[in-house]
């Protein structure tokens, strides 16, 4: 099973929950796993340095275990666009640096490796490069996480079009219920909810790998395990 790049329709679409859930599902099947977060803003100061909650969730689902800096080489404190957070920290993140970091990790040949992006597909790395170029440089198939909220139908289709236009394979999409309301509240209007999901299934050029509902768990490991119940692993081909 190859490595995949995980992107979302927007910030807070549910990329980390989906990624951790896929890794947890793989672990249940006895597979080795590795979850990576190249760049993360919104990190907390700890005695060991800045730590990002999303990266920690991926680290917890990576078996055999690896250290934090392997998972997340660039962590920044402000919860703002990563390239702006890096600028405030006096750091320039270059695509060449990220490809140099990622290449030996992909050579580890874990059964499932997920590289989670930041924000949406075209989030900037710096003034000249964006994070999508990492997926392109490494020729990674892409998993799209659709934050299920009003407006996501257009966001999902535009993102899928951008991914396929770049020449990369869209390996699958995952729905993540992040904003229950009239459009995506099965309890309020199940017919509308199902119609919206059917629209995504019909218009996105890749299989649905699952739909994650709102989960009662709150601890990261419990959230990952609960998400895994609603997911299936992508087809490597």
Characterization of the model:
The chain has 237 residues and is an alpha/beta fold. 38% of the residues lie in helices and 21% in strands. It is built from nine helices and ten strands. It has helices at residues 15-28, 53-60, 68-71, 82-88, 95-106, 132-138, 152-165, 190-203, 220-228, and strands spanning 3-8, 33-36, 39-40, 44-46, 49-51, 74-75, 112-120, 142-148, 170-177, 208-212. Strands 2-7-1-8-9-10 form a six-stranded parallel β-sheet, sandwiched between helices. The chain has a two-stranded parallel ribbon with strand order 3-6. Helix 1 runs parallel beside helix 2 and helix 5 (95-106) crosses helix 6 (132-138). It is globular and about 50 Å long. It starts with a strand and ends in a 9-residue tail after the last helix. The model has no long low-confidence stretch (mean pLDDT 95).
Topology:
Layout: E1 3-8, H1 15-28, E2 33-36, E3 39-40, E4 44-46, E5 49-51, H2 53-60, H3 68-71, E6 74-75, H4 82-88, H5 95-106, E7 112-120, H6 132-138, E8 142-148, H7 152-165, E9 170-177, H8 190-203, E10 208-212, H9 220-228
Helix pairs in contact: 1-2, 1-9, 5-6
Briefly say what this structure is.
The protein has helices spanning 15-28, 53-60, 68-71, 82-88, 95-106, 132-138, 152-165, 190-203, 220-228, and strands at residues 3-8, 33-36, 39-40, 44-46, 49-51, 74-75, 112-120, 142-148, 170-177, 208-212.
Strand fraction: 15-25%
Q: Average pLDDT, to the nearest integer?
A: 95
Helix content: 25-40%
* Count of β-strands: 10
Q: What Rg, in angstroms, do the CA atoms define?
A: 17 Å
First-last Cα distance: 9 Å
Parts with pLDDT < 50 across at least 5 consecutive residues = none
Please summarize the sheet with the most strands. Answer: 6 strands, parallel
Number of separate helices: 9
What structural class should be given to the helix and strand makeup? alpha/beta
Shape: globular
Q: Main sheet: which strands, in order across?
A: 2-7-1-8-9-10
- Helix and strand succession? EHEEEEHHEHHEHEHEHEH
